Each structure stands twice: as structure tokens, then as C-alpha cells.
Amino acid sequence: MLKERIISPSVKEPAPGMWSNCLKVGNQVFISGMTARQPDGETVLGAEYEQSQVIFQKIKDLVEAAGGSMNNIIKMTIFVTNIANNSAVWKARQEFFEGDFPACTLVEVKSLAKPEILLEIEATAILG
């Protein structure tokens, strides 16, 4: 199995030995849970809609760096700290996808890495 780490200049890489933001294995692309953290480590402040826009842009940047597009994403898992605000996430998602949307799971969790992080999204894509 040939595993390739995909890097986008617009998405900050974690410290060595932590995790990979994006891996390409054959024609499959696996994107780790993305949050609205900026390259300086600070989280974009705002509600779920604003944070979702930042996250979907990061996912777009990574899948494009792997040679694909948002239409190649087949599965997403979205973790939110307040499921009552899920319509804001769906609104942002509609700005990045068209046609058949990916399969998706939305789960409410008690908390994420920092209190100001309201959601985290991971994605899987198949290229070609």
C-alpha cells in the first residue's frame, strides 16, 4: 500500500508525530477532522455557519491538492457541539457542493478540542 501525505499551503500541518491532515492511498483521499483553527492556531470566532465556511474551504483546498474536487467527496462525518444549529452547517455546505451531495453523518458531541470550536468535519473522497 502506497500512502502519500497531501499538503496544502493554506492548511496548517500539525506538529510532527501528531497526525496527517490528508492522506492519499491509491485513488482514495482521507481528510482528518478539520476545525476552524487558523494557521496561527487561533480559532475563527463566530457561529456554526462561519466556522463551517472555514472548514469546508480547508477540505476543498486539501482535496484539490490531492488532485480532486469537492464532487469527489463521497462521505463526511460532522461533529457539532449543538445539534440545534445544524441548519447553519447545511447552509454553508450548500455553498461548496452541487449535484449529489456526499453521504453524511451528523453527531452531537459534548465538546471538541477547545471550547470555541463548535464543529469538526472529516471527509473521504475517491478520485477518478
UniProtKB/TrEMBL annotation:
It holds the Pfam family Ribonuc_L-PSP. GO terms for cellular component: cytosol. GO terms for molecular function: deaminase activity. The keyword Hydrolase applies. Coiled coil: none annotated. Its EC number is 3.5.-.-. It is an enzyme of class 3 (hydrolase). Keywords: Hydrolase. SUPFAM superfamilies: YjgF-like (SSF55298). Gene3D superfamilies: RutC-like. Signal peptide: none annotated. Belongs to the RutC family. This is RidA family protein. It comes from Acinetobacter chinensis.
